[in-house]
Amino acid sequence: MIPVFEDTLQPNTLKATKIESDHWQVQLAGAFKSAPDLLTYLNIAPTEANLLLDDDATGFAFKVPLAFAQLMKKGDPSDPLLLQVITRSQELNTISGYSNDPLQEADYNPVPGLIHKYANRALLIAHQSCAVHCRYCFRRHFPYSEQQLKPAQLSAALNYIKQRPEINEIILSGGDPLSLSDAKLEQLINNLNNIETLTTIRIHTRTPVVLPDRICSELLETIERSNKKIVFVLHINHPNEIGKRLADKLTQLKNVGVTLLNQTVLLKEINDSADTLKNLSQKLWDTGVLPYYLHLLDPVQGAAHFNVSESDAIEIWQALQAGVSGYLLPRLVREIPNRPSKTWLNNSQEG
Ligand SMILES: *Cc1c(COP(=O)(O)O)cnc(C)c1O
Ligand code: SF4
Predict the structure, then answer these.
(1) Which long-range contacts (CB under 8 A, 24 or more apart) does 149-154 make?
(2) Ligand of minimum distance to the alpha carbon of 131
(3) Which atom, in ligand 2's list, is nearest to the CA of 207?
(4) Is it the case that residue 46 has pLDDT exceeding 90?
(5) What are the angstrom distances between the C-alpha of 143 and each of 48, 125, 188, 270?
(6) Ligand 2 pocket: which of 133, 178, 180 to mutate (most atoms within 8 A of CB)
(7) Cβ atoms 263, 295 nearer than 8 A
(8) CA-based radius of gyration for the chain
(9) I need a labelling partner for 163 at 20 to 30 A (CA). Which of 103, 213, 282, 349 fits?
């Protein structure tokens, strides 16, 4: 029984839907939309830990697909996957140094829906929503409704790209670009295929991790038809996020020629140990994914309780370096506004 469906569907209808459908759209519509529903599913008493059950108070809705909840350990209020998505009372604390627009992206927003901050690559906000809501998200206060790519804005963004041949790579981001329907995503990629100066289309997404069935045959066909190099930068924070369903889907992506990379956010009490990160690197490698970035948390209001200090991060990273092959070592980075690239913190090793 999936409690979240109770309001909208009869249990029998639900059963039939779940058995017959591996449609990602159906699964997405059925995601847990409140903390108490997820906790009931996980057999965790709402009184455990300092969980905040009034999601509305945070201004950032609750959203967790069943496929992600299935990777969590039942009965464990400190499960590292649960802690990434559960609302906690600390979100309401106001901490100095934490802001609503920590990256100051407003300065690099030449046309709505496009962020052009680094010389050769630009980022398109392909869709404002995500399949999961991560409580540490640096875009949790982003004015997405003003940034959605409506047809007129898309054509303005495409023109901007065409007029700048120095841009050879487009990053589809958001929110999450895989929130787009298959038809819309195909249309967008077709548009980019037609821009000769582009060599690479990069897709920044967490959706496959929380909803593996999003890697459907329509998407694979769109990718296979593209004349550009396609890179997926996944967002996986903990080895437990890599289950068999995801591994199978990643193999399908590899089979159509996609390069698979991963970025991780360093999060307190979730993955802030060299051992956990080592296991993550190894498991990524086993599934054909290379670690790319290990990000320090962006100082967004409501996420301070996830922060790992820069000095602790460097220490953890150095221990990781001593434990994995060089190609399984992510670059430790932080986003500092107004710099021409992300800032590497991993060149400060002593001795
Ligand atoms: C992170 C980011 C990119 C990509 O940077 P890479 O270092 O190439 O991964 C591009 N544009 C924006 C606005 C970004 O924040
Ligand atoms: S998937 Fe990415 S953009 Fe979406 S809520 Fe999570 S961290 Fe934020």
Answers:
(1) 149/112, 149/113, 149/124, 149/125, 153/111, 153/112, 153/113, 154/113, 154/188, 154/191
(2) 2
(3) 1
(4) no
(5) 33, 11, 22, 28
(6) 133
(7) yes
(8) 20
(9) 103
Atom of ligand 1 nearest to the CA of 115: 13
pLDDT digits (tens, 9 = 90+) for 202-225: 999 999 999 999 999 999 999 999
* Ligand positioned closest to the Cα atom of 205: 2
- The count of other CB atoms within 10 Å of the CB of residue 7 is 7
pLDDT at 145 (0 to 100):
59
Contacts of 288 (CB under 8 A, 6+ apart): 250, 251, 254, 260
* Fold classification of 105-344 (topology level): TIM Barrel (3.20.20)
Contact indicator for 209, 235 with CB cutoff of 8 Å: yes
Give the torsion through C-alpha atoms of 285, 236, 126, 196, to 10 deg. Answer: -20
Compute the CA torsion angle 124, 207, 237, 46 (nearest 10 deg). 120
Give me ligand 1 centre to Cα 123, in Å. Answer: 7
Q: How far is the CA of 130 from the centre of ligand 2 (A)?
A: 6
261 beta partners? 233, 290
Pocket test for ligand 2, best of 123, 139, 140, 293 (most atoms within 8 A of CB): 139
Pocket of ligand 2 contains residue 133 by CB under 6 Å = yes
CA 141 to ligand 2 center in whole angstroms:
12
- Distance (Å, rounded) from C-alpha 350 to C-alpha 347? 9
Place of tokens 């301070």: 304
pLDDT digits (tens, 9 = 90+) for 1-42: 233 333 333 333 444 333 345 799 999 999 999 999 999 999
Q: Answer whether 329 contacts ligand 1 (Cβ < 6 A).
A: no
Q: Is the dihedral of CA 59, 63, 69, 74 positive or negative?
A: positive
- Domain parsing of the chain, residue ranges: 16-92, 105-344
Tell how far the Cα of 118 is from the centroid of ligand 1, in angstroms: 7
β partners of residue 122: 170
Residue 63 near ligand 2, beta carbon < 6 Å = no
Distance CA 197, CA 220 (A): 24
